[in-house]
């Protein structure tokens, strides 16, 4: 039985909220009346809570305004009581410690120029059109927010996605597409459908750091296969691993505009990759998040085009091409469709309906293709400008990939330069980058940096690149 007086229990409750940052300095504290209602306490108990907090120096009364949280200077009592042992006040590192520590450091810094983002600048997305489509959808269906979406998602949107896939020589069934919360959920669902904890999953090396986090969160063993900026995954190395003693349950690849390499697999390699995985009963998971950002008018072929055994799970999203804030992705899981649909229903139910309606209305018009053409042209120019500036400002010996689309550049620094050192020193001056070390569990990419080119080139960006170059030159 808790013998601590009720007023002190409540005071400790609010002190914990102040210590953890839930209640911040300058915010208004709940009124006496509200405390009485919310905690079912008497007037005298609520008043005692406020007096206790005043004694600790964290509450001040303002005439005709109420009580406010304040930063304690010299409190009347010796110190705030310690937080309960169950509350972790340290830095969360969690899954894939290096990635988490980098992300945490970035969140705490004041960022002036962000080169770590793989997204386009907000001004490049058709935000006004999407907003107008949302308003129209709500007018047409005032009850939209009062109903739930089917697990598979909006059927009109799924039909549009299936029709667009035809341009990439890919056959998808609208009824067997499941709309997801971005490609991250799609890949999560794919892995949960075909693996068990402890299974081995192969990935390209380097690969998107978020994928490494997903794999670790699912307790899967990661096997890295070398990849290059010219042709993607090394098929000879993959074949040797597939023939080895260790069973590879699944392989995840980004064949079109790879993150971070920017590579595009040649069609012959795509066909061979599909064949290899089918022959060794390894599930192939394709992430096609960036395919629509290719420079050419001719769509890139997907791996799914060569899938004859329903052995491939296709994942994609609109996060980079259309609307990052909507978090719309999709998965076509082949023979694992029923299991994926069940997992989706169990995990998160159907995705939010309004954004699907708005996107469907836009993608079904010729304006969508015109928008993509403008975006591709703009990104080509931005990548060229960024690449030239990097070679101009960075130390001699730096090299930059030349991807045929997308928002990313993979930069190789002179070997004596450390991208992790650069990351921390750049954060100190308000510049964020993605150090190469987070794109692999090995240490082979510490002298690489991923640079995002989604923002229009400007004197501010040029100055930031010049600053990065100066920091690197001090490492030599």
Automatic annotation (TrEMBL):
<dbReference type="InterPro" id="IPR036388">
    <property type="entry name" value="WH-like_DNA-bd_sf"/>
</dbReference>
<keyword id="KW-0808">Transferase</keyword>
<protein>
    <submittedName>
        <fullName>Histidinol-phosphate aminotransferase</fullName>
        <ecNumber>2.6.1.9</ecNumber>
    </submittedName>
</protein>
<comment type="similarity">
    <text>In the C-terminal section; belongs to the class-I pyridoxal-phosphate-dependent aminotransferase family.</text>
</comment>
<keyword id="KW-0804">Transcription</keyword>
<dbReference type="GO" id="GO:0003677">
    <property type="term" value="F:DNA binding"/>
</dbReference>
<keyword id="KW-0238">DNA-binding</keyword>
<feature type="domain" description="HTH gntR-type">
    <location>
        <begin position="4"/>
        <end position="72"/>
    </location>
</feature>
<dbReference type="InterPro" id="IPR051446">
    <property type="entry name" value="HTH_trans_reg/aminotransferase"/>
</dbReference>
<keyword id="KW-0663">Pyridoxal phosphate</keyword>
<keyword id="KW-0032">Aminotransferase</keyword>
<dbReference type="InterPro" id="IPR015424">
    <property type="entry name" value="PyrdxlP-dep_Trfase"/>
</dbReference>
<dbReference type="InterPro" id="IPR015421">
    <property type="entry name" value="PyrdxlP-dep_Trfase_major"/>
</dbReference>
<dbReference type="InterPro" id="IPR036390">
    <property type="entry name" value="WH_DNA-bd_sf"/>
</dbReference>
<dbReference type="Pfam" id="PF00155">
    <property type="entry name" value="Aminotran_1_2"/>
</dbReference>
<dbReference type="GO" id="GO:0003700">
    <property type="term" value="F:DNA-binding transcription factor activity"/>
</dbReference>
<dbReference type="GO" id="GO:0004400">
    <property type="term" value="F:histidinol-phosphate transaminase activity"/>
</dbReference>
<dbReference type="GO" id="GO:0030170">
    <property type="term" value="F:pyridoxal phosphate binding"/>
</dbReference>
<keyword id="KW-0805">Transcription regulation</keyword>
<dbReference type="InterPro" id="IPR000524">
    <property type="entry name" value="Tscrpt_reg_HTH_GntR"/>
</dbReference>
<dbReference type="Pfam" id="PF00392">
    <property type="entry name" value="GntR"/>
</dbReference>
<dbReference type="InterPro" id="IPR015422">
    <property type="entry name" value="PyrdxlP-dep_Trfase_small"/>
</dbReference>
<dbReference type="InterPro" id="IPR004839">
    <property type="entry name" value="Aminotransferase_I/II_large"/>
</dbReference>
């Amino acid at each position: 039985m808790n013998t601590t007086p009720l007023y002190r229990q409540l005071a400790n409750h609010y002190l914990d909220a102040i210590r953890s940052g839930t209640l911040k300095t300058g915010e208004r504290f709940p009124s006496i009346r509200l405390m009485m209602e919310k905690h079912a306490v008497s007037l005298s108990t609520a008043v005692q809570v406020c007096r206790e907090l005043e004694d600790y120096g964290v509450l001040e009364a303002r005439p005709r305004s109420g009580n406010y949280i304040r930063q304690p200077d010299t409190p009347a009592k010796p110190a705030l009581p310690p937080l309960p042992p169950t509350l972790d006040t340290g830095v969360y590192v969690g899954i894939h410690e290096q990635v988490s520590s980098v992300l945490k450091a970035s969140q705490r810094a004041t960022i002036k120029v962000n080169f770590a983002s793989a997204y386009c600048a907000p001004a490049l997305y058709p935000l006004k059109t999407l907003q107008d489509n949302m308003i129209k959808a709500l007018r047409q269906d005032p009850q939209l927010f009062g109903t739930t979406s089917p697990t598979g998602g909006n059927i009109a949107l799924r039909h549009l996605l299936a029709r667009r896939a035809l341009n990439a020589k890919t056959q998808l069934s609208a009824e067997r597409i499941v709309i997801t919360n971005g490609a991250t959920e799609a890949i999560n669902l794919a892995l949960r459908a075909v693996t068990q904890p402890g299974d081995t999953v192969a990935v390209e090396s380097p690969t998107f750091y978020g994928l490494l986090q997903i794999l670790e969160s699912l307790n899967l063993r990661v096997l890295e296969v070398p990849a290059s900026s010219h042709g993607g995954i090394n098929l000879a190395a993959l074949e040797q691993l597939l023939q080895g003693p260790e069973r590879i349950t699944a392989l995840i690849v980004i064949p079109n505009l790879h993150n971070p390499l920017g590579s595009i697999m040649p069609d012959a390699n795509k066909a061979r990759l599909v064949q290899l995985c089918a022959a060794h009963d390894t599930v192939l998971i394709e992430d096609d998040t960036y395919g629509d950002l290719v420079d050419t008018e001719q769509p890139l072929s997907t791996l799914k085009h060569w899938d004859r055994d329903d052995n491939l799970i296709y994942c994609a999203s609109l996060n980079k091409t259309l609307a990052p804030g909507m978090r719309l992705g999709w998965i076509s899981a082949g023979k694992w469709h029923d299991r994926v649909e069940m997992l989706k229903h169990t995990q998160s139910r159907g995705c939010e309906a309004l954004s699907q309606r708005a996107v469907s209305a836009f993608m079904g018009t010729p304006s969508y293709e015109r928008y993509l053409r403008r975006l591709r042209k703009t990104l080509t120019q931005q990548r060229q400008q960024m690449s030239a500036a990097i070679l101009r400002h960075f130390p001699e010996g730096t090299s930059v990939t030349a991807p045929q689309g997308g928002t990313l550049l993979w930069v190789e620094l002179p070997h004596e330069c450390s991208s992790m050192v650069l990351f921390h020193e750049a954060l100190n001056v308000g510049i964020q980058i993605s150090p190469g070390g987070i794109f692999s569990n090995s240490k082979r990419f510490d002298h690489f940096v991923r640079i995002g080119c989604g923002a229009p080139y400007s004197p501010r960006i040029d100055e930031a690149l010049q600053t990065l170059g100066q920091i690197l030159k001090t490492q030599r």
